[in-house]
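RETRY 2/3 - previous attempt timed out on the joint model. Re-submitting the same 464-residue input unchanged.
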Amino acid sequence: MSGVDPREGLFVASSRVALGAFRHALLPVMLLSSLLALALTVLALRPFQILGVPAKIGALEGRLFIDELMPLLATALTTARWGTARTAEAAMMQHGGQREVMRLLGRSLAMRLYVSGVFGMVVALPALTVWAIWAAFLTAALAARWHAGLPLDLFWSEVDRVAAPADLMLALVKGVVFGAAIALLTTRAGLGAAPGPRGLALAVTKGVVRTTWMVGVANLLLTWGWISR
Amino acid sequence: MTGEVLLEARGVSLRAGGRLIAADIDLEVRFSERVCLVGPSGAGKSVLLRTLTGAMRPDSGMIRLLGGDPVVLPEGIARQLGMAFQDGALFPSMTVWDNVALPLELAGLAREAPARVPEVLRRVGLEDAARLRPMNLSGGMRKRAGLARALIMRPRLLLLDEPTSGLDPVTARDMAEVVAAAAEDAGLLVVTHDPVLVARLGERVLVLEGGRLRPADGDPWWRAFLEAGHPGNAC
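RETRY 2/3 succeeded.
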């Protein structure tokens, strides 16, 4: 996180949030989504092989990756990286006097942090989710080929059979909702932090825990709504 | 303009963090008046100053800052009020120049920055540090940069929170001169522990202790403070 510049317009500030969050999470999201996909594919392939339908691994992973796992993985990593940094930055500005400086200059630092964070995150997190989905499928397809000799086109045809474009839309909606939740809750935790190192530590923990709960509940509701439509 | 009340507090009481900060205090700062607020560490001077600027509401009483409620700052107040914080409160991602120019930019006066910023940086002795970021400054330099930002708008009311603490004696004396010069065309309320600053500025010295605000003349704490060997006995 490169710090708040109060001279920037909201569009520039939001773009900087989005680009910064995306850039910093790009590699970890790719690595972790690939590792998760590799582990799942290797572990789940065996039962399908026993049943004589190894290609069904694509069917299992198709909606699992798009609808659930990768949106949550991208969210968890973004909360851990961007969210904790935002909480700490907001807390430091609250107690370092910068928020008060802005107030006396007729501007609201809190509003600036909230708005730029939400706009930035509702762009960055869906993008990171798509990135995670892409990396996971690529790894899963290659793992299935190397581990069980499953042809790539067979894997993709199974994925294509179970996952509709609307599933990707659900993943993007989740990215938007979770991104807004991360921005709002971690910023709020920072601005409400008590003074001192312990106050900062508690605020960071509070931001992560509240975001996790909120994302968990929102995910349940979105998935439930999607399944029962 | 002379004698106009810029800051007024009537019957203000405040408790913060379990401490009594103010108990029914009255305070007034007029244009071209210099008021020093002193008192023991932990008496709540900085908290009171922040309350006067509207960062928190008092439990009771009335505060008027430049004619308005400080919690809901009146339009255009940024052009009339300069405040310096204890540790500078600089934005870490911006250079000293950008921090000092910030009030001008937010007030739509960015075109005046090339003329005004070097001049005010020279006054606080930071002309060579204009391109540095706060992380590369010492505590004293950050404090002086914060003072420069408070002065850049040529405000009618200056509120300073310990502007010379942590500075070497020579720099502290120079800063006292800078503040004194700025206060010639403004009202000034300064929270300080620096007897030199008080001696240079203190037309009116008030002691805050135990939530009570009283004149320093004849005050036992003030007498003990002066007798403790500080070089400010002149005042």
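The two ends of chain A are 39 Å apart (CA to CA). Closing ticket.
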